[in-house]
Design goal:
With 105 residues, this protein is an alpha+beta fold. The chain contains five helices and three strands; from the N terminus they run H-H-H-E-E-H-E-H. Helix 3 crosses helix 4.
Amino acid sequence: MPSRSQAGTRISSIICLPRALQYRSGSLNPADVKRLIEQGMPSAQIEVESDDNTHFEALVISAEFEGKRPLARHQMVYAALGTAMGREIHALSLRTLTPAEHGRG
């Protein structure tokens, strides 16, 4: 694990896992994943589900997605998840919508 001084030098677009999650053994649960996304995208509405705490499905609704293509939207969510992607989170199925898109059903 990085020392406290190393943690501050990470690339700014990557959100580091909170200390409480970094040192906990085991996998993340949907509430943990939701919390990580909320930290990087505080204004988003988020729903996360998982049957096995390794493969997750998330619906993220955010005005920040306005005018962005799906790939850019997904990259925003991945940045919020930081190092958990590919480690604790093996697979993530994302639906990323603006509030207007969500309202249309």
